[in-house]
Amino acid sequence: MLWFPKMKALILSIPILCCWFHTDFAYATACPKGFVSTGLSTSEVHAKCGDPTYLDEWIKEHTIQTQDGFFHQHQEYFEEWTYDFGPTRLVQILRFKDGRLIHIKSGSYGGKTEERPKSRIPIIALGNSKAQVVSKWGRPNDVAKRTEMRRFYGARGVLIQQSVQIEEWTYDFGPHRLIRIVSFEDGKLVSNKSRGYGTKKINPD
């Protein structure tokens, strides 16, 4: 039958599409007003997805010193938009560079509160975004920000200096729990430490 080759091709493509949409990093995701995919501008994404639930942004500076002694500098502007579409869908994390969507990542299911946990403190994992930490632990008591320059050598001995935006969040969960200090580099959780017990008085429910 004439339709069989087309139907066979469609059936064979279904597993590929399923894998495509269920990987940690995808090329497209669905929003209330249509699909968005990598390469779109921030305005195009906003038109289809609306305001993000959480927005993070930072600037990355690069300085390259070549073997002939010349310096080349440039900046990249990053934004990370997090969308929580509710408990029936995975949270979508969209990262932009210089106004263009460069990748899409799925988190856990949405519908999470930003309130402080009153019983057991949820687990957070290295690599989590700021939005993911806020959804589980609420807003921090204190935030400290700084920029560090990291130096390394590239191909042919080229010296490269690259800025890293660092944020250190402090959580005081009260006198019966340890204070937690989490550190982010360019919006990604890289450290989770604890120190002495907290002092903040927690109001009862």
Contiguous runs where pLDDT drops below 50 for at least 5 residues: 1-23
Number of helices: 3
Computed Rg: 22 Å
Hey, roughly how much beta strand do the residues contain? over 45%
Tell me about the largest β-sheet.
9 strands, antiparallel
Order of helices and strands: HEEEHEEEEHEEEE
Helix content bin: 10-25%
Structural summary, described in words:
The longest helix is centred in the first third of the chain and has 19 residues. A hairpin with a 6-residue loop joins strand 5 and strand 6. Strands 1, 4, 5, 6, 7, 8, 9, 10 and 11 form a nine-stranded antiparallel beta sheet that branches. Strands 2-3 form a two-stranded antiparallel sheet. The protein starts with a helix and ends in an 8-residue tail after the last strand. The chain is of the alpha+beta class and 205 residues long. It is built from three helices and eleven strands.
